[in-house]
């Protein structure tokens, strides 16, 4: 069972991964249906010109326009929601496969739409209902079909007939917000025609996506799921070594009797090796077969977990064969290591050999391993960063952990002295001290399982923390910004946000500088062309506008920078000086203003007194504006302050998902759409469904491995329990002996596993400058589960009918 378990888990993990990771054909079909290539632009005129050019110069090429929009606003009875829009001639075979028709039919004429089943369920819509474009409520679109995206079952899809987006207005009467749209062409034809089209598209500095390009864009693990089998072979080596060591106590006893009868050590070792090979020949293929069967049986449930179609079944035959062969080799090698000198010198030979010094030699494994681990860590420190340093550090931590495991017998002897207060604990721990091979092997197996689980948890948490710590956006994490593109008065938006957000939430206005001429030209004040700071010559940013932000009070300053202003910064703003956030944009002690005069030209003749911030600001602050100034200073320049947004700082770095619905209901009455609301959640954690599945498999490995190890260790304890039973010890005390031993194994495995797992996390992320972050709630749950499982396994492994069971075990 111990040998079959790692192979089973590795095969199951690889099989599930190959099922949940989209195949190259599935990914290509999602992008281009049955076409051979896809090219897109953001300009419909450019797409039409490209289509005409391809039709003239590349004969035999089939072209089909497809228009899409990732944030298309539709009116859902009482509020606006964003959907993923696409229109095309859905009767053409080239687009088949992009969507699966569930009910009804695809839209074939203007005014007909098909929506995703998830969107229909959320909004409680069906065939015959309407879901109109936000700016065309007077001509609602009728739902004629329900569809499903094969790789995104919960997607908010909205399909229309060809040309529908161009027929609808891009903007509404109460807003000037222009939606970003994607105008594409699907290409289908012979390889020669597609190659000629690609050359022509490249000349226009556009990108043609092809099926081969999509397949090559996958990661190595996605292309080769068999790589996931490799860790199983490595874990098998540790487990196999522990398994054979667990059995060596009885094997050595039997070999001692055979050796006394005259059998040679070589013959006995060959016998042990052959037994190990026989066990491997049964366990390893059995593990692969069961793992393949489990992954195949799990396939019907995976679409519900991943919310997408699964890949075609791949039994991993070639990879599985390699795994079986490598596992057999590893098992035999570990058996050879575990069965060295099974009996020592035979009895007949001992009578002819002069006795040697009886003093035990100092073990050399610990210092050698410690030195090797220190050398690997020093090498990682010398390399400092990169994958090579990370893997050197990981290897160093693994070797140092192995060095610590060599000292486990001393720890067990120390525990034996500490266990004298309890009779059952004293019996259990002193049994460990007499023969530490069995508990040490069990602790080693549990340590590896826990270290792997903690390593996975810690690495994911550290990567997520690093991404959030280094995230640079246009606003700080946890902030909500409502853009005033619809011309809504900012005070109305402030009142709506105050009603939707918790009491005490800081709400300020985002204000910039413009002039009366720009205000007259703009449809809404928020889109008036603003003033900026001219880049300093030689700074490398001469072609980039440097926005100015108006700050009048401490609350606005803190919302924009994330810190309080200093006395010097407050005085500079109140005295009409420009507070520059970066020294790159200063020319001496003067700041050059760039005032737009039309046709992308700017007047840079005006200069203002500037001063640097007294404390540093982060990149997110600088990405929003290059300088702060007060409203009174702006008016002194002849400019006009204009509010373009309302900013609320929630204080929560990860605003909950339900906040979107609350904001939609609060802001829709004041004519602010969710497409004009920015909720800064930052990068999401790297824990998709697949990682949860793999983590669950790691925890299953821990539970199963610990259970088998404790049961095997308890089985080896039976002779001692027989002697205790014959001495008249109470059955409950004898059962507690097994529980004490199981708990001791679990405690040592937890301590060493958590320490090794933390070291692995640090070694993996430290060379890249990432912080070491552990989810202590998850780690605590893992530790608690391990200790509870240790006690539980000890309780069920203890014999029930002591007399009969123990006598049978002894005989």
TrEMBL record:
It holds the Pfam family FtsX. It is found in: Cell membrane. Residues 1-23 form the signal peptide. Keywords: Cell membrane, Membrane, Signal, Transmembrane, Transmembrane helix. The chain crosses the membrane at residues 226-246, 276-298, 321-343, 364-384, 390-412, 440-460, 690-717, 738-766, 778-798. It is a multi-pass membrane protein. It comes from the Bacteria. Residues 235-341 form the ABC3 transporter permease C-terminal domain. The keyword Transmembrane helix applies. This is FtsX-like permease family protein.
